Amino acid sequence: MNSGLSAAARPLPLPKVGAAPRTAPSIDPYADSNAPRWLKYLWRHLEARHVIVLAVALVFPFVATPFFTFQVATQSLILGVIALSLTFLAGYGGMVSLAQMTVAGIAGYALAVLGHSSSPEISLDWPWWLAVPFALVIATVCATFIGWLSVRTEGIYTIMITLAIGVAFYYLVLQNYSIFNGFQGLRELKPPTVFGIDWRDPVPFYFLGLTCALAAYLVVKYVVRAPFGIAMQGIRDNPRRMAALGYNVVAHRVAAYALSGLIAAVGGILLAWYNALMTPGSVGTGWLINILVIAVLGGMKHPIGAFLGALVFVLLQTFAIDVIDRERFNLVIGVVFLAIVLFSPDGLLGLWAKLRSRFGPNAVISSNQRRPK
After folding, report:
1. Is residue 281 one of the residues assigned to a domain?
2. Does 339 fall in a domain?
3. How far is CA 249 from CA 6, 27, 253, 336, 351, in A?
4. Over residues 48-69, mean pLDDT
5. Euclidean distance between CA atoms 278 and 275, whole angstroms
6. For residues 341 and 292, what is the distance between their CA atoms, to the nearest angstrom?
């Protein structure tokens, strides 16, 4: 029956009881533009908490002491970049590798051999703008080779293969004097002076580390939502089904190792500049395990967890000596690590999510909805 009202004049139907209220669609100024894809991604995923964290990170070196800026914040950023490479592999690819610090060490040693160090008979003294890209390429190729060796195994076998590679590299640099200078290592690895800025100073070096950390974080966040990252997560959950769908499981896993190796290589170059040296102790078994501890502390399922875990690890490593004897300060780190793993397998971010769900405002609303009327 014709009601006498046109379609435009008819009132909209009322929403059902309990249904979510209608909201106006969000306005995306870059939806129909020719802006780069990364700019569209930032606009769609940028939230207020991201802006607050970035603002705090930018202001921090101007209000903190040089000790906290360099020893705590900068070191946390560098270790966070290396741990982020493991988070990407393990969290989104299901491959736990203990060779990420080895890849970072390869980049640091390549920079020392190709660039300038305290051993002119070993170092080639290339300019930094040539030595850095070559060091990144060498470390990425080595990470790809490590992935090619280990992706055909799963679980404990992958861990053991990558651990064996890390230990082998440690003994190689320890016993080789013609290239790596043995246990003494290569020293005086200082960042260059560019634009009249000494990047070894605490504040400039902090911003260098912050820029690299932010770039690595955005790359991981973008990749895990790209088709490659979605395929990697499918391979993590059910590799046989993904292979049946036509995906090359081995190729995807090797590519993931290559990308994670590039991220770890960036952290390795920053670590070489931070310590101003590369020694076998930088790639020892202890540091292979420490990167895993950092990644687990923050949460393997969250890219930002690598930096949170690195911050907690550095704080414990720096100030645990004030709590316990110097020879036993690793006991504090172990106890904290064990407690977090027992109460929250997803790390600190998982523990925070549990607390919010239990005591946050959403928990109050849900508990009120469950009450009988």
Report:
1. yes
2. no
3. 57, 39, 6, 37, 33
4. 89
5. 8
6. 12
CATH number (domain holding residue 102): 1.10.3470
Mean pLDDT of 278-291: 92
Task: Look up the domain containing 274 and give its range.
Answer: 65-318
6 vs 229 pLDDT, higher one: 229
The answer to whether the beta carbons of residues 181 and 123 sit under 8 Å apart is no
Range list of H helices, 29-177: 37-45, 48-63, 66-67, 75-93, 100-114, 128-150, 156-175
Say if 3 falls within a structural domain.
no
The pLDDT-based confidence of 40 (bands split at 50, 70, 90) is low
Question: Which residue type sits at 255?
Answer: A
C-alpha pair distances (Å), 196 with each of 111, 193, 229, 276: 22, 6, 40, 20
Q: How far apart are CA 327 and CA 268, in angstroms?
A: 27
Radius of gyration of the CA atoms of the chain, in A: 24
Question: pLDDT (tens digit, 9 = 90+) per residue, 290-305?
Answer: 999 999 888 888 899 9
Q: Which amino acid is at 41?
A: Y
Q: In this structure, are residues 84 and 217 in contact, taking their beta carbons and an 8 Å threshold?
A: yes
| Separation in Å, CA 44 to CA 27, 40, 51, 55, 56 | 10, 6, 14, 19, 22
Rounded Cα distance, 151 and 238, in Å: 15
State the alpha helices, DSSP H only, in the chain.
37-45, 48-63, 66-67, 75-93, 100-114, 128-150, 156-175, 202-223, 227-237, 239-244, 249-275, 285-298, 303-319, 329-343, 347-359, 361-370
d(CA 214, CA 176): 36
Phi, psi of 278 (to 5 degrees): -135, 120
Say if 31 falls within a structural domain.
no
For residue range 131-188, list pLDDT tens digits in order.
Answer: 999 999 999 999 999 999 998 888 888 899 999 999 999 999 999 999 999 999 999 9
Q: In the structure, what pLDDT confidence band is assigned to residue 189 with cuts at 50, 70 and 90?
A: very high
Question: In whole angstroms, what is the distance from residue 80 CA to residue 87 CA?
Answer: 10
